[in-house]
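DATA SHEET
Item: assembly model
Revision: 1
Owner: S.N.
Input lines:
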Amino acid sequence: MDVIMKHKSENEEPILKIKDLKVYFDTDDGVVKSVDGVDLQIMKGKTLGLVGESGCGKSVSCLAIPGLVPSPPGRIAGGEIIYKGRNLLDLPEKEMEVIRGNDISMIFQEPMTSLNPLFTIGDQIKETIMLHQKKGKAEAHELTLQMLGKVGIPSPAVRINDYPHQMSGGMKQRVMIAMALSCTPEILIADEPTTALDVTIQAQILDLMQSLQDEFGMSILLVTHDLGVVANIATDVAIMYASRIVEYGKVEDIFGNPRHPYTLGLFTSIPVIGKRKENLYVIPGSVPNPLAFPAGCKFWPRCLFAQEICKVNEPLLEEVKEGHKAACHFKTSIDKYVWNEKTETSSFLI
Amino acid sequence: MINENNINELHHGLAVEVSRFSEGWRIFKKNKLALWGLIIFAVFFMVAVSGLFLTTGDNPVLDPSKVRLSEKLLKPFTTVDMEMIKPGDQPLFGTYLLGTDDLGRDIFARMMQGAWVSLTVGFVAVGISVLIGIIMGGIAGYYGMYRIKLIHVLFLIAFFCSMVFLASGQRGLAVNSALLSLLFAVISVIYNYFSLKVNRGPAILNILFFDTFTVDTLIMRFVDVMLCFPSFFLILTIVAILPASIYNIMIVIGLTSWMGTTRFVRAEFLSLREQDFVSAAKVMGIPDLSIIFRHMIPNAAAPVLVSAAIGVADAILTEAGLSFLGFGVPPPHATWGNVLSDGKRFLFDAPWLTYIPGLSILVVVLSFNLFGEGLRDALNPKLRKR
Amino acid sequence: MLSFTIRSFFQKLVTLFFISIISFLVVYLAPGKPSQIDPLNPKFTPQDLVRFQKEFNLDKPLHIQYYLYYKNLFTGQLKSWKDNQPVMGKVYERFLNSLWLFIVGTVITWCLSFPIGISAAIRRGSVFDRSTTFLSYVLISVPGFFFAYILIIFVVKTFDVPVIGMQTFGMSNAENIYQIMDRVWHLVLPSILGALGGIALLSRYVRAQMLEVIHQDYIRTARAKGLSTDMVYYKHGFRNALLPFVTMFGLILPGVIGGSVITESIFAWPGMGRMGYEAILARDYPIILTLNFIVAVLVLIGTFISDLLYMVVDPRIRL
């Protein structure tokens, strides 16, 4: 078993490596460390799910990859983002413009507002194609029609002249995907692409993304707070809490054998169909204020396992086993069974 | 077990709730320009109030209208020449702090008197316009969707005509239209009485109770009509026709500048009345007026306050412009505008007569504008995030 | 689209009707009666008064006066009380003079406000942004007449040239080219003066609008596509920021007269503003009324054009 896994992981090569990324925001109240030492790897042709509560820094991490962190007030305070042997953080703006939309493209949470209301969707897609692929108008038009067809927009020849306000949210997200994939990028960053959509549409969009991944072979970084979505389409998972990655591993490992109390908490707080429970578990407290993170492990005030050491030393993200890392002092001793005991006894708290 | 300590621990490091006011003040303080605006405004206020007390009375400390023909067009900081004037005529400290004009009047005293005029004109005019604006905007925003019946339109027209004829001195026509409006009122009351009793009124009268336009249409069209007038020219016309008086100026500026406030208040009310706390108040059976005054006006206060601060600046400028053209506060009362206007003939010989009032107006108006803009930033949560 | 145009047109007509009533009443209901133009004038006998009232329909009931006034206005028979000249001819002549000032001022305003406002928004918080912001506040707050005098002192002292009036006295015999240059020179100061306040206000609006737009999601999308910063701001940002200014088109027209009263009287510019000022001094009601009415009509035309333009520019509005 171990041998097979090892063999498999050797075959995988990361297309994008994020090392110790730090993104800080200078606000009136002080420096907000939105991303503080994040390490991530996106494997070629695979999907990495980045999971976390709102405000934990997952969106900012994504924006940092193509260099879109709004600045000021944001700034990159350190780290590296290695893509094809080059550190993206060091590249001049002109070279980043060539990479954006061409090698690395992005789709956003709000399809409603992410398209320019004054241009037809066709013009907005053509613009990308003409910019990066140096194609003429007619060719770009052809390609756009193809792309619109691929993302499942009915009668593309008609809809190509539509303005964004004439389309539904799901349709707009399809247009966003068409635009992002129009130059066959290596990496697609999807920042909560389904959060703003209806549940039925969500499934369609996720299916679409997966089938397009099979066709184009790009890697996907999928940001979400929905564990169900991750279970469906991700191959690797990173759990983020308070500006850091707290657990990272294969989707089987994370879902089968979570090693961080926060991950465990996330799973326990999902309602399970057919399982009757008096009270659904809720992680106590709320996300800490990024201006005043607690000392030691940032999760300790909400952690059922917290000991004295947690209040003093911040645990590092270290391997539990090959390809599975967790940032907890007790990563080896806690597991589902201990956890269940704890939550049973403490469920009256809520 | 969660006890008090644990709860504290849980809240350790969580965002602290900050009240709206202190949050606003914190942002406002950071805006250096706005803070200066506030400080200058405070100083100006004190100057204006002391100006009022020092320049009024039978024997004022500073006499703004004392003519000393021998001492005309003196530079600032000139000491008085006691041999040339009667004892008791000398200015405060024996020095013309800001010089004298062509009649030998003490500019410092005139400026002190003018400060109070500027202050009152600004505040009273804006007070009038804000009051009208809140009432009109409030009605349009809260009761805007109601439709006015034809008979009420007719009643309004007849009533309006009778007022107009009365004002123009045509008694007969005034009485006729007043009677007509009374007739409409009576019909309306009787109709309502009948429809309550028998569930429907007389069929012939139904046409009179035809729905016309909404209250909102009425008010907003009126705003549009008022916005079409060239405001300064309109103010100038009315002020010129009316007898010269400082109160007329205040009222006219107030009556011609309420449109902006109306629009703000209406927009704010329209969005507020859709919000849950207003619906909740309605469900609990709280009367409309109480909802409006307790829940909605405090929430709509922010844009009104901002436009009021900027409105004061505009009113002061308008008054200065009117005084400059000779339609302002009647002499010998001094205002900053007429000090400047009097001085314009000596632009090259006595430039301080132009610079002193001009710069004073500039600084005060600037302080109001900066203060208003700072207030806008501090009170607008949408801008705050940036 | 057609139905919207027609509806908008009729709405404007109704508005105009109410404007005509209000401006008529404002002038005619005021306490000072036009028949008391000059009670001290010994030549003005009671017989003259009666004749005067009869001639200008002042003895008729108010609504008849209203009807006669607008009938005369539209048929061009309206006469000034002061010199019995037809009002329309007088206004037209002055209108042409004002138009020059207005056009030059407006062009200067719009050409400078947009670049200033946009660069301030893009470089938010920079020295440029902060200094233009403060400067605009100063320009908004400075009394126009005071500023005019500072400019006059400055120009006269440094360049030693005449600035008052439309042309230098005694230039009518000079060669054409000198006459034109003289005209232009006289045009510069008053139009700059008129424009400065406008630049201050408009550039603030442009900045606010541009700031609003560059924080929108679609700007981030445009950046994510790999467009250069200039393309993002000028193609995707600017067009969106421009929308609200289409509606301002109608509101700049009252400036033809309202804003120019003071400027024109300082520079002795024989335009509409100065004409209005003189008419007010002489209580020449037909001229005052006509000026008010003409400006209102201009505003309505302006807003009507804005409405139509808005439909063309914004695809979301298709009526």
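QC remark: The first helix of chain A runs from residue 2 to 11.
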